[in-house]
Design goal:
82 residues; globular; 38% strand; 4 strands; four-stranded antiparallel β-sheet; alpha+beta; YueH family protein; Uncharacterised_YueH
Length: 82
């Protein structure tokens, strides 16, 4: 992996780490939230909106829509911030 971002996030009042790994070789992000037993590999070439939609769709299998959107927004911000 070329880059690893580790951020803290509160999910239902439980402190959780979010791991975002960028692999430039295959242009993919691997995003993991171990406290939820959740991970996802996402193509780096997706637009911001498509990237967020992909996150929300997969988070929504575990969480409600509002929390899924909040987490997706945080992840998008962490990935695309300079």
């Amino acid at each position: 992996m070329d880059q690893l971002i580790i951020k803290s996030l509160s999910i239902n009042d439980i402190a959780s780490n979010v791991y975002i790994a960028l692999n430039n070789e295959n242009d993919m992000y691997l995003i993991a939230i171990p406290e939820l037993n959740w991970s996802l590999e996402v193509d780096k070439s997706l637009s911001d909106d498509d990237f967020k939609d992909e996150l929300v769709i997969h988070l929504f299998t575990l969480l409600d829509e509002s929390l899924s959107n909040d987490i997706a927004n945080a992840i998008i911000q962490w990935i695309f911030e300079d």
